[in-house]
Structures are given as structure tokens and as C-alpha cells.
Amino acid sequence: MDSHAHIDRFPPEERDAVLARAWEAGLEKIVSVATALDGVDTLRQLVELNPGKVFCTVGTHPTELDGGVPAQKEFIDAVERIAPVAIGETGIDLFSAAKSASPQRLAERQKRAFFLQVCIARDLGLPLVIHCREEEKGRLDAWNIVQRTLKDAKVDTEWALIHCFDYSYQELVPWQKSGGFVSFSGTLTHKGNVNVQQAITFTHVGRFLLETDSPFLIPEPLRSEKKVKCCEPAHMVHTARFAAELMEYEYEAVLQCSLKNGNKFFRLEK
Ligand SMILES: [Zn+2]
User: Fold this and answer.
1) CA-CA distance, 243 to 240, in Å (whole number)?
2) Chain-centre distance of CA 58, in angstroms?
């Protein structure tokens, strides 16, 4: 399972081929994650065209808040219309906030949007897909905001997934111990990403997923070979192979684990 892709970011005429290559590569399911409320109807169409294989979420990404925080009613309306498997992606992105004209204001807006979506997920009984990015690698400001928000909203961490996990085992272990899920993207394979490469060797096998975050984040070796312009779900096999080596697991076992964990986290029927 590719637990985090953005199929709607591919040109409409390419989507069928992208999905066909994913199934051919051995994937069984893809969760196409929303980044803004105005894109969710496209996601719904993808779900309807690929029943039991493509699933979608409803949410507003922390870098998609230039127009302000959508009202609670807009989220609820979208959830009722779309029937998503999760809320997200939502979270905190201090990297992009720092680059904006008013970092403080944007960070506050991200916190408001995140808290709102956390509460909606909790109240509707939906899992949460969380994006968490620091202003600089090695800091834990966004991480701490995310942890505090979940605590304040009294969310059971078993319903929360930190996607594109980019921290060390020191964050991973207590997070998973508390019930939280993580997913590893192609950044795991990137040279020099030692913290995450070490972290996955500590992962709880029942609480990790794999993802591409496509069309972003091309995994190695495709990234260095510069053979492809963008990432797509089929490329997840490279991340899975790399993960299997680090974890000293069979490749197939890693894929099966991540599928099983994905089914569990997103409450998908077999
Ligand atoms: Zn994403």
C-alpha cells in the first residue's frame, strides 16, 4: 500500500497510467491524500473509479492556508460528501512559515487549522494524517506543537499517523510506544538521511507504513540516476527494498506488514 500519494497532482490524462503502473508494481491500495478542500471532489472521483483500491482523505495542508483557515462547517460538509478514510493532511510546517512574510502569523494560523482538524477527526472517529516539518532539521518545535495539540484535544494516538517521518529514533520510539503510527517515504533512501535510516531499525513492526508522497520525493536510486522527473506510487518498491535491508526483513514481509498496518490504521476492509 502506498499510504500517502497525491494522485490529483498528476495531469488528468496521466492518472490512469500512473495507477496502472502502481498495480503492476504490486501495490494493492493507494491513499490519495487531500491538501485543500477545493480538491476533494477530484479525489472522490478517483475513489469511485477505483473502488477498493484508491481511498481518499479530507483536509487542509499547513502550507495551503493563505486564504485563511476554512470553517468547521466546510470540513464537515466535505466529509459528508466525500466519505474519506481519514482527516488530513494537516499539521505544522515551520519551514514554510519561516519563509513567509509573516512567519508568526502563519504559524498561528497553522496551529488553529491543525487543532480544528484534530478535533473534527476525534469527533467523527476518523484517523489523522499529520504533516510535521521543522524550520531546520534537528529542531523539535513543530514536533512539540503536534504532540501538545493531540494531548490538548485528548486524541488517542492510535488514531494519528506522522507521515514522511523525518525524525530520529528518540522521537519514534516513545511515539509508537504511545500507540502512534508513522510512515516512511522515499526520503528514507536519500543519502545522508542517517537519522531516519537509523530510526527505522527501531520501528515497531505493527505501527509503520510506507508511502511515496508522490509526485514529490523521488526515492533512490531513481533520484540520482535522474531518469524520472517525478515520483509516482510504483516507485514505492525502491523505498520498500531499502527499508527491508535496513530492518533485515524480507522485502515481501515489509510490504505485507505495511499493507496490514495500513488496513488497520485506515480501518479498511480486506
Ligand atoms: Zn503529502
Assistant:
1) 5
2) 12
| Domain assignment of residue 270, yes or no | no
Tally of structural domains, the chain = 1
Q: List, for residues 71-85, the tens digit of each pLDDT value.
A: 999 999 999 999 999
pLDDT in tens, 9-39: 999 999 999 999 999 999 999 999 999 999 8
The grid coordinates listed for 10 are 498528476
Whether residue 53 contacts residue 263, with contact meaning beta carbons closer than 8 Å, is answered with no
Distance (Å) from CA 57 to ligand 1 centroid: 11
Contacts of 165 (CB under 8 A, 6+ apart): 172, 182, 183, 184, 185, 196, 199
Measured between alpha carbons, how far is 46 from 176 in angstroms, rounded to an integer?
Answer: 32
Q: Does some domain include residue 39? A: yes
Instruction: Find residue 184's DSSP bridge partners.
Output: 210
Rounded distance from Cα 233 to ligand 1 centre (Å): 12
Asked if residue 218 is part of any domain, the answer here is yes
The CATH number assigned to the domain holding 109 equals 3.20.20.140
User: 33 C-alpha to center of ligand 1: Å?
Assistant: 6
Centroid of ligand 1 to alpha carbon of 128 (angstroms):
13
Domain limits for position 63 = 2-265
